[in-house]
Amino acid sequence: MTSDPACTELPSAARGGPVSHAVSRVARLHRIAAGKLLKGAGLYPGQEFLMMYLWDAGAVRQSEVIKAVDLDPSTVTKMLQRLEQSGHVRRSPDPADRRAVLVEATDNSCALLSDVERAWTSLEEHTLAGLDTGERKELARLLARVEENLCRETADCPENR
Amino acid sequence: MTSDPACTELPSAARGGPVSHAVSRVARLHRIAAGKLLKGAGLYPGQEFLMMYLWDAGAVRQSEVIKAVDLDPSTVTKMLQRLEQSGHVRRSPDPADRRAVLVEATDNSCALLSDVERAWTSLEEHTLAGLDTGERKELARLLARVEENLCRETADCPENR
DNA sequence: GCGCATTACTTGGCCGACCAAGGTAAAGTT
DNA sequence: AACTTTACCTTGGTCGGCCAAGTAATGCGC
After folding, report:
1. Residue B8: per-residue pLDDT
2. Domain presence at residue A10
3. Per the database record, which ranges form the HTH marR-type domain (chains A, B) (predicted)?
4. Per-residue pLDDT tens for B50-100?
5. Is B137 among the domain residues?
6. Nucleotide nearest the Cα atom of A35 (by C1')
7. What is the pLDDT of residues A76-115, one digit of tens each?
């Protein structure tokens, strides 16, 4: 009676893929939680990854960003336009290649780094609450396996580094 | 050297939340994979859940759908409008309550049920390839725990059934 | 040097998903 | 019966994300 996993009864058409269903639900909840924590920093869910990369990488070509976050180029373009408008990012033409665009986190945005770091570890703790170290490691391991699986044949992960 | 989990180096700002990062990546890859499998059935990623519920539930109020898939009402409205346009769903005013709308999967869409079922189990297999039964059960268990955690305080799961 | 493929981004369109606000109808209160 | 609250959806706007197609510059082969 009270034994169903979490919140929802599984639709019968999804019986063949309970884990997939769980992944979808967890993904959405996780994204929402991340969004709430990141809202304080003025970031929308998804933008964190881009900024995290830029904070590490410094001034860099947009193509590098695209490779790093592994999103559609058009997605990155639009995200960067918005991040530029909101003052988190500076873009400038690459003098060495007139097609390319150099991207860089603004000094302003760097002030958010620690906020985002805190938010991210807080999210992790919220996500993994009640799991001991062994379980966390196991979950990380299993997710890594799953990620590998999903990369294969989907051909979304660069085979060539 | 070749020991990093999957495809990507973790940004330093995300060091405090490796599992969260993995969840995000897996979520996106999983959604993409689902989308590819479901494209054959004429469904966009996300619509599966709605249709799965309707196939089980028959003619039902829109508010029931909203509760079941646990999405924003406005999201459901728009999805249903599109699903109606594409012929997967029929909507009609509820004679018993003039605010409400009754929703129902069309006969046409029911023909897709088996396709979606197959797609979903195929997705599951693709996702969990190489994991033995114990690992699968463990992953399911851990995901359920995580889901519980994310429901708390986010107050997105109905406390009240 | 010239043409052609490749690379690098942009634009437009579409969908899922959110929030904020609005409008209507039912239910509850007095 | 009139008023207020609550439930049920819709509309409009914004974002992340995808695809398809387009533009512009570079690089490569010849």
Report:
1. 54
2. no
3. 16-148
4. 999 999 999 999 999 999 999 999 999 999 999 999 999 999 999 999 999
5. no
6. C18
7. 999 999 999 999 999 999 999 999 999 999 999 999 999 9
Would the CB atoms of A127 and B20 count as touching at under 8 Å?
yes
Quote the number of domains for chain A: 1
Cα–Cα distance between A40 and B25 in angstroms, integer?
23
pLDDT given at position A8: 54
Domain extent for A119: 46-124
Classify burial at B135, counting beta carbons within 10 Å of its beta carbon; exposed 0-12, middle 13-18, buried 19 or more. Answer: middle
- Mean of pLDDT values over B105-129: 94
Quick count: other Cβ atoms within 10 Å of Cβ A86? Answer: 15
Q: Is the dihedral of CA A9, A13, A18, A22 positive or negative?
A: negative
In chain A, the residue whose alpha carbon lies closest to the alpha carbon of B142 is A139
**Which residues of chain B neighbour A153 with C-beta distances below 8 Å?**
126
B110 close contact with A: CB closer than 8 A: no
Q: What CATH number does the domain containing B52 carry?
A: 1.10.10.10
Task: Report how far residue A117's alpha carbon sits from residue B43's, in angstroms, rounded to the nearest whole number.
Answer: 37
CB-CB neighbours of A95 under 10 Å: 8
| B7, pLDDT greater than 70 | no
Residue A133 in any domain: the answer is no
Selected residue of A71, A75, A110, A145 to mutate for chain B interface (largest B Cβ count, 10 A)? A145
- Chain B residues 68-87 with a CB less than 8 Å from chain A: 68, 70
